[in-house]
Amino acid sequence: MQVFTFFCVESDGSVPRFDVTACADDSAARARAFELLDMHHRCDFVEVWRGSQRVFDVSAHAVAA
Questions:
Q1: DSSP code, position 13
Q2: DSSP H stretches of helix in the chain
Q3: How many CA atoms lie within 13 A of 48 on its CB side?
Q4: Rounded to an integer, what distance in angstroms lies between the CA atom of residue 61 and that of residue 22?
Q5: pLDDT of 27-53, one tens digit each?
Q6: What is the pTM of this model?
Q7: Can you say how many angstroms the Cα of residue 3 is from the centroid of all Cα atoms in its chain?
Q8: How far is it, in rounded angstroms, from Cα 55 to Cα 47?
Q9: Which of 45, 49, 52, 53 could lock 5 by a disulfide, CB 3.0 to 4.6 Å apart?
């Protein structure tokens, strides 16, 4: 398991919430990011970090598509 940090970024660039979750791999982390977008509708995207490395972003637009 790897520990990922998920930052929920709103349209004004603020990050009012974050989540720290252990995931098996990047695919599981991506699934968690989609869950967070589904829970927090004000987020435009989620930044996903593993330690000090930014791994990827997941856009709220990807959820709608």
A1: S
A2: 26-39, 60-64
A3: 24
A4: 25
A5: 999 999 999 999 998 999 999 999 999
A6: 0.91
A7: 13
A8: 8
A9: 49
